[in-house]
Each structure stands twice: as structure tokens, then as C-alpha cells.
Amino acid sequence: MRLGIRANLAQFSLLVAINALVGGMLGQERTVLPLLADETFHLTGYTFLLTYVLAFGVTKAAANYFAGTWSDRFGRKPVLLAGWLIAVPVPLILIWAPSWGWVVAANVLLGINQGLTWSTTVIMKIDLAGPERRGLAMGLNEAAGYLAVAATALATGYLAAHYGLRPAPFLLGLSYAALGLGLSAFVVRETRGHAQLEAAGHLAPGELSDREVFVRTSVREPALSSASQAGMVNNLNDGLAWGLLPILFATAGLPVSRIGILAALYPAVWGLGQLVTGPLSDRWGRKWLITAGMFVQAVALAGVALADGFTGWAVAAVLLGIGTAMVYPTLLASIGDVAHPAWRARAVGVYRLWRDGGFAVGAILAGVVADVWGLRAAVWVVAAVTALAGLVVAVRMYETHPRRTSELRAGTR
User: Where does it localize (predicted)?
Assistant: First the structure.
């Protein structure tokens, strides 16, 4: 048993592919569900429309936490399998849903699926990669997931435009669930032993209670808690992009096919960009890449609020994708840098609890502001919150990459 991406290339590559399927399960909703709410179920209030994002965010956040604790207790593979079993009914419910309540129920299951499967693939890749190339590992993981989100959002937009909003777009999700379950059951191998191998090389004691891990990651440890709040705000603005921006584009008169392009453009740039930003954080460090990424996101959201046509929104979507790519894998890598291998899976779970809680916070905040002051006001508010989160990282977080930290210390002597 050895640490490193190259030493574990077959299993690492398999887990990248499985995370692409996880992302595809999320992507089946990005274009179609806001339109389904409007055209099929005739929902009028933005807050009520965003109940599916709220349901998804709350359940995914909770599932992230339990994915971390269960991965330490029972192993990684059983948690991954459980997540895929829960995924199977989701597209079937979306196809046959007679009312919006069924759609919300499907998103409860989708949130559990995403929390268990995505968290576990993150944990397993950190186990395999070892300390030196965590940024690259997380860049590959998140790139696969969000490129699949983008490709599926684009494909479902095409299917919806040509064959209707149901059932064709969701048959794609059903195939993802079947393939993910089969690969996880028969090909994936357990990786907890790799974390135990890395822990054996640490001099510091690693045993902490679940409560201690939660408090340390949420509040007490500056880098971990800074990453947790930045992750929450990042997914707050992603919840806005998912739930409200397609409605903004539709009210401007854009056809479904063009809305599908915009829905796919942001996660596509996000996904591809992580292939660059993940390894870049291994060379440059984590802190300032995260800080700059949050500010780029804020500028992009301001661009969405100011634009009034496809070209302007496309430019803003590209910029939003770039900013998110700077932040997303780098935050995960920083958690892996700081957390001891003995409680790292739980720290990842707590971080992802806060990060994906941003979907719920974003659904409530953006929905209420949109109902009271309009869609563009909601975008402006989220842009301001994102800029504030970047400022918190700049002030409170320290550099976490082991090599960059030692270089900075050497430079101050």
C-alpha cells in the first residue's frame, strides 16, 4: 500500500469517473426544474419555487456530515454504495411527479445521494493522493463532477426543447444512477487503509471526538473555519444560479435552448478551470487563490445584475465559473492540509455540511429578496455577501499548504 496519485492511478481514475456520474445526477435538474416549476406546476412566488433548492441543501448538508463520520466508522465503500442506492428513485419521481411536493421529495433524496457519494469520493481521493498533490486530486475530482453537471444541463436542455420537459431529460439521470451503483458495488476498493498509513507518519496525536472535530472545523481553527464560511457563501451563490437565474433569463425572453447554454456555461468553465486551479494551489498556496476567487465571483454576480441579454450574461457566467474554479478545489485541499488523517474524513464532512448549507441559506435569502424587491436585487445582495466572505478569508485564514508554509516561514527568518 502506497500513497500518491500515480501509485493508485487505476482506483483514483475510477473514482474520478464515478464523481462525474454524481455530478450528472445534479445536472439533470439545472435547466429543466425551474422551467418545470413555471410551465407545468405554475408556481408564482420565487420563495416557494426555491423550496426544492432548500430541501436539497438541507439534506445534502446533513448527509455530508454523516458521510464523514460513517466513513471513519464503517469505511468509505459502504457509504458510497448507500448513496447510489438512494439515487435510483430520484429521476423516476421527477418523471411521474403529480405535484410540486413530489419534486421537493425527490430533491430530499437527491441531497442525500449527493452528500453521501460526493463526500465519499472526495475523502477517498484525499486518502489515495497523500499530502503533496491534494490540490491536483481535488481539481480532478471537482472538474469531473462539474463538467458532468454542465454537460448534463446542456443535454437536458436539448432534450427538453425537442421532446418536452418530461420524461426524456430525466432518463439520462436514471442511466447515471444505474451505472454509478454497478461500478461502486463491483469495482471500487476500500481506501480507509491509506488514511491509516498516512496517520502512522504523524507525530501529533490524532484522536478527537466528533464534537471536537465539529467545533474545531466550524469555529475554533482559523483556516478550517474560514474555509467553512467561504464554502457556505460559494454555494449560496450557486443556489442562486441554479434556482433563480434561469427564471431571470426566461423573463428576458430567452428561449429554452439558450437558457440551457447559459445554465451549462458556468459549471463548464468551473469544471475545466479546476484542472488548472487545483494543481496551481499546490504551487502557489491556498489562501490567496481562495480570496481572489471570492472577489471574482462577486464581480461576476454584479455583471449578471447589470447585463440585459445573452452576450452579457454569457460573459458573467464565464467569470463566475472562473471565480468558483479558483475557490472550490482549493478549499477542499486546505481542509486536507490542516486536518489530521485520523479525523480528516469527519472534518471534510463538517466543512461540506456548512458549504452545502449554503444552498439552503441561498434559497431563503435569494427567494425572499426576489419576492420583495425583484430578481436583480437578489443577485446584488448575493454579490455583496460573496465579497464579504472573501474579505474574511483575507483577514483570518493562514496559508495551509505544507510546502508553501515552510517556504514562507523560511523567508521570515
Answer: Cell membrane
pLDDT at position 407, please? 47
Average pLDDT of the segment spanning 330-348? 88
CB 345 within 8 A of CB 195: yes
Question: What stretches of 14-64 adopt beta strand conformation (E)?
Answer: none
Which alpha helices (DSSP H) does 31-99 contain, by range?
32-39, 46-49, 51-74, 76-87, 89-96
Q: What is the pLDDT of residues 153-180, one digit of tens each?
A: 889 888 988 888 889 889 999 999 999 9
Is residue 38 one of the residues assigned to a domain?
yes
- Are 155 and 24 in contact by the 8 Å Cβ rule? The answer is no
Q: Which amino acid is at 77?
A: K
CA angle in degrees (0–180, nearest 5) for 41-42-44: 130
Residue range(s) defining the domain that contains residue 107: 6-197+208-412
125, 338, 375: which is closest to 252 by C-alpha? 375
Whether residue 202 is contained in a domain is answered as no
Burial (CB count within 10 angstroms: exposed 0-12, middle 13-18, buried 19+), residue 197 = middle
222 preceded by cis ω (within 30°)?
no
> Burial level of 138, CB count in 10 A (0-12/13-18/19+)?
buried
pLDDT at 408: 41
Q: CA distances (Å), 74 to each of 68, 70, 77, 241, in order?
A: 10, 6, 9, 36
**What per-residue confidence (pLDDT) applies to 411?**
40
Average pLDDT over residues 332-361: 87
Cell numbers linked to 363? 434559497
Residue 228 counted as domain residue = yes
Q: What type of residue sits at position 53?
A: V
Most confident of 34-43, 174-183, 303-312: 174-183
**Residue 404: predicted pLDDT:** 54
Q: By the 8 A CB rule, do 262 and 320 touch?
A: no
Q: Find the CATH number of the domain harbouring 71.
A: 1.20.1250.20
pLDDT at 80 > cutoff 80: yes
- pTM, to two decimals: 0.78
Residue 212, domain member (yes or no): yes
Alpha helices in 88-221 (DSSP H): 89-96, 100-129, 134-163, 168-186, 192-200, 210-215
Q: What does the pLDDT read at residue 228?
A: 95
Sign of CA dihedral 387, 392, 393, 395: positive
* Count of domains observed in the chain: 1
Inter-CA distances, 151 with 24, 63, 110, 136, 338, Å: 8, 25, 18, 22, 33
